[in-house]
Amino acid sequence: MRTRVIIYTGKGGVGKTSIAAATAIRSAEMGHRTVVISTDSAHSLSDSLDMQLSGKLKRIDDNLDGIAVDMQLELETRWKEIQTYFSDFLASQGMDGVTAKEMAVFPGMELMSALFYVEEFHREGSYDVVIMDTAPTADTLRLLAFPDIANWYFDHLFHMVKNVIRIARATVGRLMTAPIPSERFLDDLESLRKRLIVVRDLLTDPEMTSVRLVLNPEQMVITETQRAYTYLCMYGYTVESLVINRVIPDDLKEPFFQARLEEQRRHLRTIDEVFAPLRTMRAHLMPKEVLGQDALRLLADEIFGDDDPSATYSTESPMKIFERGDEVVVAVKLPFVMKQKLELYTRKDFLMLQLGAFKKSISLPYALSGRSVVSADLEGEWLNIVFEGEEIGKKKGRRRRGSGDKAGKAPRRDSDKDG
Description:
Layout: E1 4-9, H1 16-29, E2 34-38, H2 45-49, E3 58-61, E4 64-68, H3 71-76, H4 80-92, H5 97-103, H6 109-124, E5 129-133, H7 137-170, H8 183-203, E6 209-215, H9 219-234, E7 239-247, H10 258-275, E8 279-284, H11 293-304, E9 319-324, E10 327-333, E11 342-347, E12 350-355, E13 358-363, E14 373-379, E15 382-387, H12 390-395, E16 406-408
Parallel strand pairs: 1-5, 1-6, 2-4, 2-5, 6-7, 7-8
Antiparallel strand pairs: 3-4, 9-10, 10-15, 11-12, 11-16, 12-13, 14-15
Helix pairs in contact: 1-11, 4-5, 6-8, 7-8, 7-9
């Protein structure tokens, strides 16, 4: 059985931790070997389960384990060689030892640690279902974009830096007071690069991994969910469903809630309209705070009923390549562009897609190498980037674009689906 990975994300405070924990409990009760991972530095998963989790796997119940990524433990195990070098380097520049050790925690270590757990669980086949309880949307986007971004830097900088270091070690290294990275350090970086490629492939495989967006029926939350959905698609992640949490029961009779109920009905209609045909599940506002396994089981009943929570609701990839006549189309799903600026660039064998502050580097197939972009248009939810056909490319002698050539700019639009 292939490992099933479910990632829950959403705006802060919508209840994604409770839903992730409830999903894990129900999955384990249905016989799946399940692990739930907290990637949020606040680690509220422990509070939700009413059980203290740590940086080591802990048994929660039959078939269910949990772990909360602990950066200090990761430094002492996974990152020892890299962290030691950076600590020594900073100390050589006059920084005291304690401060140097703290400063050697570079951005991205915690993100990579969380992702590597998924890779390890898949490689070892130790779990059937892996559930990730993530930080609020912006941090989750950085987490899920990290393999793609890191791979770009490795491809463009790592080999050059490695050669410079080896030359320096053989020449000026004996005269330098600052330590030069060892071969073990370089080997560790190369290993990280290879593992990040594996992680990226696992997380963007729609047969294995999917994202579930958690939201409340509120306008600001709906708008942020639309943006998150779009960015996740741009990075190649399959968003398979929505969980609408804390829905006020419609039969509530107290006059105080009537205006809120009417507002909620409007927002629920908006969600149904703008996110269709995405599968939607609902959970009512609970009379008490959802804490502990008994309360989480009630929440799981609300969301899944008798269904298997590890089921796959969609395997549609948000990126596809197909031929259209003599042309080749690279299609990227962008359901809610709204007011963000959307631009495209070709750089050698890469297509660079930038939407607002987020950038995606798409490695082009060899067959498209050197072909020019004919057009780029938004058609419904899809951005269709059209490359010239092979025959046209041959007639032109397959002129290769230089680095940084602009491939085109997709039209800006206000989403007609913006609720």
